[in-house]
Amino acid sequence: MALCPVCGDSAEKTVLAQVALVHDAASDLVQCAACGVICFDPLPSVGILNRFYSASYYDFRRWPGEAGGAWFGRKLRKIAPTGRFLDVGCATGFFLHGIRQSTDWEVHGVEFGADAVAYARGELGLDILEGDLKDANYPDGYFDYVHVNNVLEHVLDPSGLLAECHRVLKPGGHFFLAVPNGVNDSRNLVDFHGTEGIPARSPSGHIFFFPARTLLMLFERFGFAVMTKKTGSIKRGLRNAGLLPKKKNWKFDHFPREDVQVKSGQGVVVNEGNRKSAFYYQYRNFSAELSNLPGLHDFGLDFLFELKKGL
Ligand SMILES: [Zn+2]
Questions:
Q1: Helices marked H in 43-93 — which ranges?
Q2: What is the distance in A from the centroid of ligand 1 to the CA of 56?
Q3: CATH no. for residue 289?
Q4: 31 CA → ligand 1 middle, Å
Q5: How many domains does the chain have?
Q6: Residue 193 belongs to a domain
Q7: Residue 78: inside a domain, yes or no?
Q8: Residue 300 burial (C-beta neighbours within 10 Å; 0-12, 13-18, 19+)
Q9: Is the residue at 200 inside a domain?
């Protein structure tokens, strides 16, 4: 890798492991000394990404998704009675649908997966753009709130995505970013390669791994003020970090696997069954929120940020 794709630094990168998305193409997993980001080198081609994602089934659970949107809607109503909300990587749109049902906010989504887009438009009647955020060409300062939940680690140009989120936000607009803690999230790939001697498959398609300092540097670069920063998924994070015993089968998802062909229209499996009471989902969302710890900690798997675009 000549230049770091996040900070542009040209120094030699430290190789941590060999990694892969598909069974017949491996990359190094490298870390940039300048900004700390850990990523695939080379980054996967669009062809490899398409093979990886088209071979993945998604099991979308409708009711927890909608309840998550309703829960989030409470926060939006506290910010303003109405506004324009964008979910980047909105999948089948259950979260957006939950917000729309519980608030007067106008909701928009962007999603890469064609089958998920078809579902969100056809079944839920949502305004969804298929493709990258850049393809949408939203006007400057169009949104009051931009929500990016577990997307940044999947895309080929994460800096470009953050820059575009900043551009489409109003001055003073809110930005929620959830992203895995890269130090913790990359640990199993390094451990797998170290013990098995073969490239570790990145099972969820993560190609970038962001340490806390890299994220804070990016926020400063793009002009996001940090309102809150939290760490979640502590139990899984403790396992990854070796502070709790790993699950017996932790290596399973890291072994190479052949492509599975998923036909168009079959990439989305929606689970509509077993809707529980609104109380139950409120309790689940409330207790999940309580389990997030203030600050950024390497023993947790997820980082959650509430940011604001500077005025
Ligand atoms: Zn860098």
A1: 46-54, 62-79
A2: 30
A3: 3.40.50.150
A4: 8
A5: 1
A6: no
A7: yes
A8: buried
A9: no
